[in-house]
Design brief:
two-stranded antiparallel ribbon
Length: about 110
């Protein structure tokens, strides 16, 4: 799913035991970008970790907000808080560029999805 629609409600549903019990492939590309951070997973990160941990035996492919090298920002079985669900902080240059684009009126919709 490459969409800004895959967020908290979807992760909450996947965290339930009886939802999609035969799910083998999960590829979510729905990063959230804020003024301070980029590539943040939408939804509660503990819920995401729980949903994925509970499916460790059935998921054959799991890709969460892949980076430019197609590496998942969460590895099932990884140590808590060592994943990259929280994305990364924007550099000062990125913050400045974002403000310039927003102030110009160009790309204002795309910056919010």
């Amino acid at each position: 799913v490459k969409s800004s629609l895959f967020g908290a409600e979807c992760w909450n549903a996947l965290a339930a035991e009886d939802v999609c019990p035969g799910l083998e492939v999960l590829w979510v590309d729905a990063p959230m970008h804020t003024e301070e951070r980029v590539d943040t997973a939408r939804g509660d990160h503990d819920t995401i970790r729980s949903a994925l941990k509970g499916r460790a035996n059935t998921l054959k492919l799991c890709m969460i907000n892949p980076d430019d090298k197609n590496k998942s920002r969460h590895i099932i079985g990884g140590v808590k808080k060592t994943d990259r669900l929280n994305g990364r902080a924007r550099t000062e240059e990125e913050k400045h560029a974002r403000r310039m684009i927003q102030n110009s009126g160009a790309g204002s919709y795309l910056n919010t999805v």
